[in-house]
Design brief:
The protein is mainly alpha-helical and 436 residues long. Among the domains are: 285-324, no CATH class; 339-410, no CATH class. Helix content is 44%, strand content 7%. It contains 15 helices and 6 strands. The chain has a two-stranded antiparallel sheet. A two-stranded antiparallel sheet has the order 2-6. Helix 8 packs antiparallel against helix 9 (237-245). The longest helix is centred in the first third of the chain and has 23 residues, at 132-154. It is globular, with a radius of gyration of 21 Å. The model is unreliable at 3-44 (pLDDT under 50).
Length: 436
């Protein structure tokens, strides 16, 4: 992968590598960390596994806010009404997507830098007290997650599954991309199982975002949760159910149970760039007006995730009075995957298999938590009902565009201006294509 996406100059590349590690993730207790650059490609004086793992977690969050904005705008869940950069309301809603523009390249490059750091973790010499199969299980799970996020964007155009700084490294097809993601997740799961029998300790600490999932046996449940998401994307329903049975899905647990990106105002850490005060004089991130129009009366997922402002935000012939209200501060976490999604993934898999009774039970658990009454699923309404529940339960978690695309329903997403379209896939970044 060509990870030098912001500039072709060697000076800029040098500073990118330096700046990447500034927002290091505070570990449990939020202690400061001071260490040499773990991006040293020679590994003559290799950093510890702990330092690279900390950097990997930090890297997971870099440009994640841009990723969420892009996929949620494409799915007509939100607008980002930013007068200083009309690409959010022009390019994303009307096309074509600029293959060299930041809306694609920022998130794409950040994901592959995490992949690079995972390969570096795997290349480290063995360390005392660090579980080698645990290290592999962690690195390959994270790599699969990062590839999946990039595939979510480029979709029909595939991704690069062999990490390399050589621009000539080929893209593979969507199906081949999924196959590699599956291979990584399954290999990681096997390694995590081995590590669990050898002391069940990684030998390095994870942040509070992985609380409850910070040793091989419990991290494996996170791995299986991601595996279930991928299986549902592939309509591999039975594999999805098997993975969910081995994940952390629990109908008796809080719906927010899961794995998160965490933020803080600590030195060298990062705050949550998605945060805006919904009552500020002006906001940029607003829910699409249809999010209110289509909400069932009394659905608390609408009333708690948006704030109805007394004024209307206007820009580029678009408008909304619905401020996004999923966070209470700039240090609130953002989910990677959580229990509510898993329950709905199980409902989706059972709908795919025609097992409507089980799917109905799961959907009604989620609906009850949202203040709604139960529904009865039929062959005619099941998929529509599922997509409604996912739309409102997983608002601003990056799923609507992907779900509607998977079911060939992009054509039903609202178009608010003449000339607007719904983009199906982002292009391959021009810096990743020979001659680009």
């Amino acid at each position: 992968m060509n990870t030098n996406l912001f500039s072709r100059s060697r000076i800029t590349q040098k500073w990118i590598h330096r700046l990447l590690w500034l927002p290091l993730l505070a570990l449990i207790g939020c202690q400061d960390l001071d260490f040499t650059d773990p991006n040293d490609p020679t590994l003559d004086n290799p950093p510890s596994a702990q330092k690279i793992v900390t950097g990997i977690e930090a890297g997971l969050r870099i440009d994640y806010a841009i990723y969420l904005r892009v996929v949620e705008i494409l799915g007509r869940q939100v607008y980002y009404l930013e007068p200083a950069d009309p690409r959010y309301t022009g390019e994303l809603l009307r096309g074509p997507i600029d293959a060299g523009g930041f809306l694609l390249t920022r998130s794409w490059g950040s994901r592959y830098r995490v992949v690079k750091n995972c390969t570096q973790l795997l290349a480290l010499p063995a360390e005392r007290n660090v579980s080698e199969p645990g290290k592999r299980g962690f690195a390959n799970t994270i790599t699969a997650y990062q590839l999946l996020l990039n595939l979510n964007m480029t979709h029909d155009n595939g991704v690069k599954i062999v990490f390399s700084d050589d621009v000539n490294t080929p893209f593979v097809t969507r199906d081949q991309s999924f196959a590699e993601i599956v291979r990584l997740l399954d290999a990681a799961n096997a390694d995590l199982a081995t590590a669990a029998t050898q002391g069940d300790n990684f030998g390095f600490a994870l942040s509070s975002g992985f609380a409850g999932f910070d040793k091989p046996s419990t991290f494996a449940r996170f791995n299986r949760a991601l595996r279930a998401r991928v299986a549902v994307y592939q309509q591999d329903w039975n594999t999805a159910l098997t993975a969910l049975n081995n994940s952390f899905l629990n109908v008796a647990a809080p719906l927010r149970l899961g794995v998160y990106h965490v933020y803080s105002t600590g030195a060298n850490d990062q705050t949550n760039e998605t945060w805006e005060s919904p009552t500020a004089a002006s906001v940029k991130l607003v829910a699409h007006p249809s999010f209110q129009r289509d909400a069932a009366p009394g659905d608390t997922r609408f009333s708690t995730k948006t704030f109805v402002r007394p004024d209307t935000i206007l820009f580029d012939n678009l408008s909304s009075n619905l401020a996004v209200n999923i966070l209470t501060s700039s240090t609130d976490p953002l989910p990677i995957i959580r229990n509510e999604e898993l329950i709905l993934l199980r409902a989706e898999a059972n709908i795919g298999l025609g097992v409507l009774g089980a799917a109905q039970d799961d959907i009604n658990i989620v609906r009850q938590a949202a203040g709604l009454g139960p529904v009865t699923l039929t062959a005619a309404n099941a998929l529509n009902q599922l997509l409604y529940e996912k739309r409102y339960s997983l608002f601003m978690e990056g799923h609507r565009w992907i779900d509607m695309r998977r079911y060939d329903r992009l054509n039903v997403l609202p178009l608010d201006r003449g000339g607007d379209i719904v983009v199906r896939s982002m292009p391959r970044p021009e810096s990743e294509v020979t001659g680009g």
